[in-house]
Amino acid sequence: VAKDLRMQLPVFRERDLIILDRGRTQYFALRSQTGHLVTAERIDREQLCEGVQQCVLRCEVIVGGEM
């Protein structure tokens, strides 16, 4: 995420970062030390996308401060 936003890690760590997932389970987390988006919970495709050909989990990353 830091690389995609072209932000240096010290600046990235200073920002307020929020990850928005749909539903009750937070499937993703952001590592402020590296700027990587990682899975925070086990993702069970059969449970989440039963009967769907293409399974897509969407999340939004909101970075506070000036861009």
UniProtKB/TrEMBL annotation:
For the keyword Hydrolase, the answer is no
What keywords does the record list, in alphabetical order? Answer: Glycoprotein
| Source species | Baryphthengus martii
Q: Cadherin N-terminal domain: from which residue to which, for each copy?
A: 1-63
Work out whether the entry's keyword set contains Glycoprotein: yes
- Return the InterPro entries for the record: Cadherin_N
Name any one Pfam family assigned in the record: Cadherin_2
Put simply, this protein is called PCDG3 protein
